[in-house]
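A note from the maintainers: we've had questions about how concatenated examples are separated. There is no special marker in the raw files; a new sequence line simply starts the next protein. For clarity in this README we add a label.
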Amino acid sequence: MRKLTDNELKNIKGGVSLTSTAIKYVGDLIEILILAGRKLGSSIRRIGSGDLCPLK
């Protein structure tokens, strides 16, 4: 194995690897956003219809 020169080291391009862990986290993020949207929509609907539980 030979040593690379400074010029050769500058020309090295890295790649992007998409692992199963990254895919899982993207799926989890999408699921969280969907659930947050459902909760927000449900809250807006309940506020609009006056169907709220009393806090006291």
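[label: protein 2]
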Amino acid sequence: MELFTPDFGLVFWMFIAFIILFFVLAKWGWPVILKNMDERADTIDKGVEYAQQAKHQLDNARDEARRYMEEAQAKQAEMLREAAKMKTQIIEEAKQQASVEAQKVMDAAKVSIEQSRKEAELQFRNEVSKFSIDIAEKMVRMQMKDDAAQVKLVDKLLNEIEKN
């Protein structure tokens, strides 16, 4: 039963040991523990503050990235519109140039055809004239084979000249 009821001496020495331990802890232990707890609390506060700043910066970076993406998409759309406009303009210019060139070719062909036609007409007239002269010459020679026909023709021509 002695274990359950401690003696006065044991209680006294336990009380003295407790008081000494309390003063030692109060003098050197608790300040270190409280200082470490304060530093840990400051570190945690700084970590929370840093996390909030990082979150704020991340949000800003996301917003900025979204703006850059929107700007890039707008620029891309503008470039595509410009490219389509330039394509249409180039096609129209090419069509106009082709039309002008075709008209020039047509005009040149018309001039060439007209010149060829005139040359052919002139050549045809020359050929017809030559054939007519050849035919007339042959007819006159046939008719003028005898002297009586020659005299008759000269008289006829002289009579016509005198009438005029």
